[in-house]
Each structure stands twice: as C-alpha cells, then as structure tokens.
Amino acid sequence: MTMAMTFRTSAIAMTLCAAMAVFATLAPAKAQSVQRIAAIVNDELITAYDLESRIRLVLFSTRLPDNVDTRRRIRNQVLRTLIDERLQFQEAKRRNISVSNRDIERAKLTIEKQNNMPKGGLERILKENRVPLAAMDAQLRTGIAWSKLIGRRIRPRITIGEDEIDEALAHIKNRQGQTEYQLSEVLLAVDGPDEEANVRRTAERIIDQVKNGARFSAIARQFSQSATAAVGGDLGWIHEAELDRTLRDIVPGMAEGAMSSPIKTVTGYRILRLEGIRKIAQSDAKPVMLDLRQIFLPLPGTAAPVDIEAQIDLAKTVRDTATSCVDFGNLAKEVGSPRPPNLGKFALTDLSPAIRAVVKDVDAGKISDPVKTPGGVLVLMVCGREGGGGEIKLPERDDIADRLMQDRMSLSARRYMRDIRLAAVIDIRA
Fold first, then answer.
1. Do domains 1-168 and 289-386 have the same CATH topology?
2. Is the pTM for the entire model greater than 0.70?
C-alpha cells in the first residue's frame, strides 16, 4: 500500500481488519449477561454481552491467551474502544451520514478478496463459529459511517499547497544518504490529567502482551487511537528529524524489531516498534565499473624536480598519442613501463582517492591526466565504463501530497473525537 491511501480508505480498512478477526467462537451469553449494562453512552446502552463479544474478538485477533488474567488486563481498554465506536456512530447519525446495505456488502466482499475466500465465505465462517452476523454488520456500519463523516467534514477543510510539496521534496533531497526508520505505533490518547496513570498502565500491559506473543499489528488495530490503526500501526519510513522531539533520542538507539517503553507525548502515550532501517533516497544506479589500462613511468625516491617533470611530459605525450586500448598497450611497451598494462575491472568506489579523482569523469576510450604516485607517474586509459546513470529515488508529488493530507486529517480526526468525548454523557457500569 502506498502513501496515496486516503483517510477514508484507511478508516474503512481499520473496520475491515477488525471484522476479519471476528472468526473467534462467541459462546452464547446467559440471559442475565445479555441484560447487564456495561456502559451508557448518551442514553444508548453497551451491554455486558457486547463487551464479552468484543473481548473474544480481541483475544482471537491478537492471539492473546484466553484466561482470566488476560481478560482482566484488556477489559477496560476494550470497553473504551466500544464507547468510542458508539460515539462515532452517534455523531455520524447526527450529521445525517447514512450507510446502505450495499456499503456493507461491498465491505464484506473486500474482506473475502483480501483473504482469498469465495463469495459468501465470510458469512459461512462466521456462522460456523457462532458469531452473530448482525454484530459484524454493526461493526462495519460504524466504521464506514465514521470514515464518511471524516471525509465530508474534515477533508474539504484541508489543502496542500504546491509550495508544501516542494519543501517536502527539498527536505528529502537534502537528506539523501541519511538514515530513516520504518516504524509502527500504538497511540493511547490522554484526554485529561486524571486519565494519565491509567493510560500508562494500559500501555505497559500492551508491551507485556506483545512480549508474550501478541501481534503488534493486531494490538494496534484494536487499541490504537491513531489513523494508523487501519494499517496495523504502520507509520512508514520516517527521518529522525521528522520525529516528535521526544522520540529523537529514542529511535536511533533502537535495534530492528525492538519495541520502546511507553513514551509520553503531547497527545498521550506511544509505543513504537522499529521495523527497519535504510538510507534515504539512494540512487537506483548500478555501481560504476571501469576497465582500466595503465602506463607507469618509474622515478627514484631521490628524483630531481626536472626528472619528475620529464616523466610527466612523457605521460602527456602518451595521452595525446594513443587512440585505442591496443595503441595504449603498445605504447606501454615502447616507453618501458615495468607494470602490466591491463589492470582489469574495478568499481569506481574501490579505487584509491587519488586514482578515483583522475578517472571518475573519463569516458570510455579516453585517457586520464598524469598523476604523481609514490614511485613514479601513472597515466590511465578507460577501456570500458559500465553502470551509473541512475536517478535519485524520490516519491511522486501526489504521494507526498497524500502523506501530508493523511497526517493532517489524522490530527484533525483525533481532535474531533476528543471534542465528542468531552461533550458526551458516559456512565460506565461495568
């Protein structure tokens, strides 16, 4: 998936990924469990059965062990996710966002294609595992509604100027050859000082769960409150200078595959995992290979300046006389060069700095200027030149624009959700 992915696509993908995990067996709830209230969100109920169903989904999708301790550790975060989803659907409904049955069916077809299932295969698997189809439909409907809402209310308010794209490209060019990092994240938002301690504990539990075998990407899809949750927390490739200030002292010291401790940021707590390290905007060119011939004109260590100058003049005569590699080889014999004329093939980068400097711009079939070396004067002929000519790998302008749009929409969506929470009446009973 490229940076060209829109926020709407990301949000739908988040919903689809979560729905894909609903392959776990949901045990029938007892009558009293169905009627117990876990939370009230603006007069709408989240039942204990809703919570139990989602816990089972999370356990399945993250590969966490299904035991009392695990359930206790994840319960509060799962309930918070359900509350947020309920708020999202309520806000979408208030803004007259509708989701058709056709939207739901298209989402199911997408899940089936992504998992190489035949048409209707998703519903069959759900039935076999006693997962209520209505529960999956409701989850899909919420995700699609929220993505439509974000696309309608936030997307039109954001513009990416050509000057911003130019600036981003300039940054990439200036950082050519520098290190960048492929990162994944889990973001747990802190909406008020009274939440900070609980959120940090949740972050620490998530780290423990991943260390004990849980999939980081599945955890991100279920719990992360960033738009990157849609793609398993994938942040893509990021230069150190583009990291939050609080992260710049952490990421460079991480090993590939390592996971950070909870990191406090302005928005909450982040958990990072370093997926890879590479150099920025490297050339896609093949290494420059040179097929070299040489004539070496020796000088004693005590040679007088006039003798040195005489050998340099002789080397220039050779340079101006030879018209082919054959001529060059014959001249080597005539002037008494003590070294074999055929040096062979070398990568330009493997040559000594002094030699590299005189041949790096010499075309095939041409002879270098003489170069003074320890022990004599050297003149080189480039009989063959291969490789080079590649261009710097830079992202397309549309990709950069989409990345900038994605970042701003993600930030705006988090702020939007924060405001919705602050205005809501939430009564947690469980």
1. no
2. no
